[in-house]
Design goal:
It is built from 10 helices and 15 strands. By secondary structure, it is of the alpha/beta class. It folds into 2 domains: about 130 residues, 3-Layer(aba) Sandwich (D-Maltodextrin-Binding Protein, domain 2), CATH 3.40.190.10; about 100 residues, Periplasmic binding protein-like II (D-Maltodextrin-Binding Protein, domain 2, 3-Layer(aba) Sandwich), CATH 3.40.190. The strands form 5 sheets. A 5-stranded mixed sheet has the order 11-10-12-9-13, sandwiched between helices. It has a 3-stranded parallel sheet with strand order 5-1-6. A hairpin with a 5-residue loop joins strand 3 and strand 4. The longest helix is centred in the first third of the chain and has 25 residues. The N and C termini lie far apart (about 65 Å). The chain binds glutamine (GLN). The site of glutamine has 11 residues, from loops. Glutamine binds next to loops.
Length: about 260
């Protein structure tokens, strides 16, 4: 019996090894910054359903502040930028395999820093609460016991989880896309949606019946958006940060803010 168990365990270990080898071979992109910089291509992951930072433009291609920023960074680094649109929740895990870096209105968090490094922050953001205009929700305690929606794997999702920890009658629904949570709010399936303020403002304009409440009324702290980078790739981090600094110095950054964010 013991021998059989050992044989079974060896088989399992072999199968797992085979699987991980297969995954390694699938890597289509360069594995170090030296490789990718010499190949002249930077594959940038995003989730193009987070306006004004990233969305699908009229031509069917990803557009938005982050996309323009990524292209400007690529130009400074003298590499071509290829945008890969994927689920937000997959971005961090895809760095180093499917994508080189990720730009997606992504907040720097301790949890994410276990898996990736971040560039210098390029934008200060805050979560807010979307509610129907006739709702009585006005502060943190009012959210307890309510049906709250958020986008999966986001900081809004963690804030909803915190409210559920305080009151387990709270119901949490997570969605791949924030707009789907907003639709459920409009349809009356949710009482509130916790979402970053800029996309929330864009979405609220699309519907007469909902409004945005300030995150500060709910005790939400300022968050910092940054570009997610492979862990310990100091050379790439240096190049991205240098490019970011140049773009800020030469006025490109402010132009992009004006074009994409101030007009939202
Ligand atoms: N800023 C939020 C986060 O990093 C949401 C980002 C997004 O949905 N694109 O979790």
């Amino acid at each position: 019996m013991k021998k059989k168990i050992i044989a079974f365990m060896i088989t399992v270990v072999c199968i797992l090894n085979l699987c991980s080898c297969g995954k390694g071979q699938e890597k289509a992109k360069a594995s170090t910054s030296d490789d990718l910089l010499s190949e002249g291509k930077l594959i940038v992951g995003t989730n193009a359903s987070f306006p004004p930072f990233e969305y699908i433009g009229k031509d069917g291609k990803p557009d938005g502040f982050d996309i323009a920023l990524a292209k400007a960074i690529g130009k400074e680094m003298k590499v071509d930028v290829e945008i890969q649109d994927m689920e937000f929740d997959s971005l961090v895990a895809s760095i180093g395999s499917k994508i080189d870096i990720a730009i997606a209105g992504m907040t720097v968090t301790n949890e994410r820093q276990k898996a990736v490094d971040f560039s210098n922050s390029y934008y200060d953001a805050v979560q807010c609460v979307l509610i129907p205009k006739d709702s009585k929700i006005a502060n943190h305690d009012d959210l307890k016991g309510k049906k709250i929606g958020s986008q999966m794997g986001t900081t809004g999702d963690s804030l909803s989880e915190n409210i559920k920890k305080e009151d387990d009658t709270t119901t949490i629904s997570t969605y791949d896309k924030a707009i789907d949570a907003v639709n459920d709010l409009v349809n009356g399936r949710l009482d509130a949606v916790i979402l970053d303020k800029n996309p929330a403002t864009v979405f609220a304009k699309q519907y007469e019946t909902i409004e945005v409440l300030n995150g500060s009324d709910f005790g939400f702290q300022t968050e910092h958006y940054a570009i997610a980078l492979p862990k310990k790739d100091e050379k790439l981090a240096g190049k991205v940060n240098d490019a970011l600094e140049k773009i800020k110095e030469n006025g490109t950054f402010d132009e992009l803010v004006k074009k994409y964010i101030e007009t939202e």
